[in-house]
Amino acid sequence: MNRALLSRLILKDWYLARATLALVAAAGCASIGVLYLRSEATGFIGLTAAFIVTILLGVSLPMLTIVNERKRQNLAFVMSLPISPMEYTTAKILSNVLAFFPIWLAITAGVLWTIATAGSYGGIIPVTLVLALTPFVAFCVLVAVAIVLESELVAIITMGAFNVSYSFYWFFLVRIPGLQQEMKSPVAIWSRPILSIIAAEIAIIVVAVGLTFFFQSRKRDFV
Amino acid sequence: MSDLALRLDGVNKRYRFFELHDIHLELPLGRIMGFIGPNGAGKSTTIRILMGLVHQEGGEVFVLGHRMPDQQAAAKWDVGFASEDMRLYDSATLDWHMRFIRSIFSTWDHAYAQVLLKRFDLKPEQRIKGLSHGQRVKAALLLVLARRPRLLVLDEPTTGLDPVARHEVLRELTDVMGDERRSVLFSSHNTQDVEQISDQITFIDRGHIIDSRDKETFMDRWRRIRVELPSGVQLPALSGVIDIKQTGRLAVATTNTYDGVLPRAYEAAGVRVQAVEHMTLEEIFVQNVQCSREAGQA
């Protein structure tokens, strides 16, 4: 694997998505700022805004760097460079994850830190982390679908399905026995169900990335 | 080291409604091959297989000595590829694309790139989305040519270009011909373009290579013989004649193995030979395709 070329391809994707990345990073900072005002209303608005920002980032990055590249017929240009299809896959996953993860981490850390330092809201930290991980999961699945299935329609359906599922997910979460009580606790309670959900979310991320490489290695047509 | 720029040996690829059959193709180093076929003949599929973008189901493919598709990353360092359906990034400028390619290829010739910018009348600071189709094609070719690759693979690069842009592109490719170390595979359904720059010609139709040889052989051996039949004289069936069109006492015989014997044979049979004509590459191509299709149906 040619690391220098791989880094050029990653930088290329970031350059082409720079406006979106800057906008999302700014919106993420703004949402943390609103959250930091520490009233009930700003807390709700800040949390919701931070959640929406990470969802937007998770959707726009794969659409810009993978789906549009194929739709706008740039893929043949990229594949004319001295790379193999597996190197292309690696570059796409790295450019997406390395762009998404720091912004997601900064927003999530900012949200968790604000909650942790706000006084007696520690109980909502575990469920906030569970919720913060869902856009990450959706992002990784969308990256996998966009690379492997090469279909704008399927990517849009996947995106839509995840967006609809967030409210169902919340509906499912609040019905976990004891969770509502734990959320009222002044300190974070890392119960078994919460840890299991976090583990499942991380497992989905790992499986999505692994399956992308698996299916790409078996693919015979790339353009 | 192989003296072939590319070699396809028994290559097959099957799709639902199209199949590439047993493709054998060789391009020696330093030669320019025109790859001609009607739309849907298999030109782009063959070229995609050559570039490792599509994997063959059978047969072997070597590009500059590298086995494809396994060694495509190594091969593509020395291969410049441009195709009609290849697009640069709309939101970026040509200058950004030039810097991007330059950052990857140490062979990038900055001075030559500047020359090409002038010849193609392109402005580096212009975004790709503001360029016309012809300018986009020329921009893509600039990025390929300024790398100075050993092998150029061009899939229908002149399709959709206006006459001026076509002339500029062909003039540049003609200049490439002067460099004996560089090889070119040039696909088109425009036989005029191919005739102008190629020294080898390959015809493909319905997924089959129907003929492949050097251009001079094609032009020398394909002839049209116009004859007049005196009353009572029948046109004799002679070997080497692949098509006869007769209207009353006038007939036109087409041969693909002309060696000067046929007119004498006709004269000996009492047929009056009016003219022996060279054929254009387009006429040869059309005749070749028709003969191939008739043979396939028989």
Shape of chain A: elongated
- Report the strand count of chain A: 0
Structural class by helix and strand composition of chain B: alpha/beta
Strand content of chain B: 25-35%
User: What is the first-to-last residue Cα distance of chain B?
Assistant: 43 Å
Distance between the termini of chain A: 21 Å
pLDDT < 50 runs, ≥5 residues of chain A: none
Mean pLDDT of chain A: 93
Low-confidence stretches of chain B: none
Q: Give the helix proportion of chain B (percent range).
A: 25-40%
The overall pLDDT average of chain B reads 91
Radius of gyration of chain A: 19 Å
Order of helices and strands of chain A: HHHHHHHHH
How would you spell out the order of helices and strands of chain B? EEEHEEHEHHHEHEHEEHEEEHEH
Indicate the proportion of strand residues of chain A.
under 5%
Which strands sit side by side, in order, in the main sheet of chain B? 6-7-8-3-9-10
Overview of the molecule:
The complex is a heterodimer of chains A (223) and B (298). Chain A is 81% helix and 0% strand. Chain A starts with a helix and ends in a 5-residue tail after the last helix. In chain A, 41% of the residues are buried. In chain B, strand 1 and strand 2 form a beta hairpin. In chain B, strands 6-7-8-3-9-10 form a six-stranded mixed sheet, sandwiched between helices. Chain B has 298 residues and is an alpha/beta fold. At the A-B interface, helix 1 and helix 4 of A face helix 2, strand 6 and helix 3 of B.
